[in-house]
Amino acid sequence: MICCARKVTTDMDRWTPRVGLSAQEKMLIKRLARVRTLFAFFRLHRHELFDDGFQEQLESMYRTTGAGLPPHAPAFLCMVLLLQGYVGASDAEAVELSVVDLRWQMCLDCIGAEAAPFSQGALQLFRERMVAHDMDRILLERTVTLVRSGVMTEGEKHAVTKALRVAVDSRPLAGAGRVEDTINLLGHAARSIVKLVSKLTDREPDDICRKAGIPLLLAPSIKAGLDIDWSDPKQKAMAIEVVERQVSSLQRWVDRHLDEAISEPLRPYIDAITQAHDQDLEVSKNGAIQIRQGVAPERRISIQDAEMRHGRKSKSKRFDGYKEHIARDLDFHAIVACAVTPANRPEEEGAVPIADDIRHQKLRLVELHIDRGYVNSPVVDEVFAAGGTVLAKPWGQRAQHPGLFTKLDFKIDLRSQLITCPAGEVEQFEPGETINFDPEACGACPLRSKCTQAASGKGRTVSIAVDEDRQKKFRKLQETKPGRALLRKRTYVEHALAHIAARKGYRARYVGVRRNLFDLRRAAAIQNLEGIHFILRHAA
Ligand code: SF4
To answer: Residue ranges per domain, the chain?
Structure first.
């Protein structure tokens, strides 16, 4: 099916697609001048992207014992994954496009094929293998190498350096799973258990529900089964008790009637019930089961995607899923590393895997442009310790009430750890502390009306951040024109994130942190190749 492949070991084919263009390919490439132009780039440069070194790395994912050999050359399937990411196709759609779309056939070197050159199953397995071997990171690194070394952009002749100046930023990504409340979480997990048991034991689901003591699942939805007035708090409280009782009955039935082999596939759903129970329910003073007040920090919100979490873009804007972080090279305009974290995790956690991936490329982080969320990351300490520069916008210094003195009106001496107010009162401080000025001094102060609206008998307070020294440096930077120009460099990463968002959309394609990281790295690799393509087109 695939025209060009050669044996590199006794059992594995290497992809060796043709370099020269046929008359039909020339015609297709001419047509690819305006829309979906990267197809032309893939066709013209696939042999450079998939050189022998990269193909060897892809082949290393397969054991040399003969077991688990790929049905296709790994580079060929890697090209399919790139095309899939480029057009945003599902696995099934990718299979169809390889038969009906000449652009796909041209890139895959199978023009004229009447049957799909790969199966959906082969594509899924290959993607899982890429994830298991961290080969998505190698793919991204390959594109970074191509951008930085100017392999494809002859005229560029960059002076390649290992010193790296990057900007890091993140964006929200809605999870692929359905977000559910406690009753639906328990009901969804219980229904999944019943369906699986029915399949494994060849019994009717309704029969299992009756025997296991969970008649609620005989209704089309758990809330239809409860059939209560949801505006009545008493009925609502009763409903959670009924659900908990019946779900526990199902768990006991599984423990008593199913052997290990059958219950093993049920494990993720049983664990989900235990997790929802522990996080969302509690026993009240009178011994009844009730919904817990407040939200557990790591609360599970979906049965389909166990890792997605509630997160916040701001105090008022909430989202459910993940945060995608990228680091963009400020000199070579490539995305050098990516990370994905659950939405509830602080921004600073995303910087750590990014720094690890940068180290893996043997690059040295000498300048880091970040927003405030990353300031407390250990990566910032590492960059400072190595003599590098970190640039971030400082926190705003707004007064509690308009017209009152801000923190900037106070003199903060970090070396002697003394703070002096506009009236000359001095207090000692420790970083991370909130300073209370002497209430007596403040009470008698002629500047009081411009300083505080605290109640009588109380003085002005000022909070000193743990990283106050850094904040001071960032503030100084913002006060000068060259400093502000430096801070604006971070907009490059914002543009790159906007392109990622346009390519991938707001909602995750996959479930879980790791698969979504694969998707992000693939999108970043495609974006890097588009960058090379742009340079080539404008140089021509
Ligand atoms: S009110 Fe207190 S803190 Fe403010 S200027 Fe007067 S003495 Fe200083």
So the answer is: 5-133, 182-291, 316-388+481-526, 407-464
